[in-house]
# Entry
Amino acid sequence: MDKIIPLVILVLFCGRGYASAYADTVNVDIGQTGRADNVVREIKLTQVDNMFLPAQINVTEGETVRFTIKNGGNHKHEMLIGSMADLKKAAGMRRTHPDSEHAEANLVQLEPGVRKDLIWQFGGPGVVDFACPLPGHFKKMRGKIIVEKK
# Structure
């Protein structure tokens, strides 16, 4: 009995670590750049220093939306759409190379007071994440897009 309890605790902690690590590596269909003539609605997002408003958005699989993003904060911000694993990787790269330029299709860069659009067509059902991967922003400036089945 004395050996079973530590074994059970070990299994529980290992299982939790595995599930947490797996959650970041699951393949997520984030979708693709959308076409303006397929947009079915506009979703307004505001970036303030340390958060997105709103931080959760619901869409339907296959839906094409126009995100109108406004930087209402006092610092440069970005909005990057992707899996959490990809967002963490981007945040790590921004920390290592903060001055390098980035031009991904799923990225919008905004100076304070600037407003830009991103047209995106969502893939299959699931959860797509978004964040500002800039150094010091990533831990708080995150959101989720819930892609619901048609």
